[in-house]
């Protein structure tokens, strides 16, 4: 029955559409990967090509005897100036949630380490699940306001497929 096969394909597609946004999971980035937070690692290279989003987190792993983590402003980052730094994080295994979009600057507060390149700047992008980034196919729901949510759209599609399936079988 070609009709039923098409419906099955449609149903799978709709379910996939409903599930995919929820699968845009938070990512945990171990800074420096296996090298950790240390001297002799180029954190500009490490960060290149990575996409950091709100909801993700950074994990700094290091020997707390030798390193720590300070969060600073952009100008302080350039100058390795820790006078107004936030922190330090000093556990040796520090998870830092990225809770807002924008730039973030970190460096190690031990003497000379920032100057030697133990510093990291990243740009945090908005979450993929932010309402502004969601499609709003308003034409599919006549009479509704033009502010339907993704959840409403997904519910509508699931109901639509259920109704179609009932009629076609
Ligand atoms: Cu250090």
Automatic annotation (TrEMBL):
<feature type="signal peptide">
    <location>
        <begin position="1"/>
        <end position="26"/>
    </location>
</feature>
<keyword id="KW-0186">Copper</keyword>
<keyword id="KW-1015">Disulfide bond</keyword>
<dbReference type="InterPro" id="IPR003245">
    <property type="entry name" value="Phytocyanin_dom"/>
</dbReference>
<dbReference type="Pfam" id="PF02298">
    <property type="entry name" value="Cu_bind_like"/>
</dbReference>
<dbReference type="InterPro" id="IPR008972">
    <property type="entry name" value="Cupredoxin"/>
</dbReference>
<dbReference type="GO" id="GO:0009610">
    <property type="term" value="P:response to symbiotic fungus"/>
</dbReference>
<dbReference type="GO" id="GO:0046872">
    <property type="term" value="F:metal ion binding"/>
</dbReference>
<keyword id="KW-1133">Transmembrane helix</keyword>
<keyword id="KW-0732">Signal</keyword>
<keyword id="KW-0812">Transmembrane</keyword>
<protein>
    <submittedName>
        <fullName>Blue copper protein 1a-like</fullName>
    </submittedName>
</protein>
<dbReference type="GO" id="GO:0009055">
    <property type="term" value="F:electron transfer activity"/>
</dbReference>
<keyword id="KW-0249">Electron transport</keyword>
<dbReference type="InterPro" id="IPR039391">
    <property type="entry name" value="Phytocyanin-like"/>
</dbReference>
<keyword id="KW-0813">Transport</keyword>
<feature type="domain" description="Phytocyanin">
    <location>
        <begin position="27"/>
        <end position="126"/>
    </location>
</feature>
<keyword id="KW-0325">Glycoprotein</keyword>
<keyword id="KW-0479">Metal-binding</keyword>
<dbReference type="GO" id="GO:0005886">
    <property type="term" value="C:plasma membrane"/>
</dbReference>
<keyword id="KW-0472">Membrane</keyword>
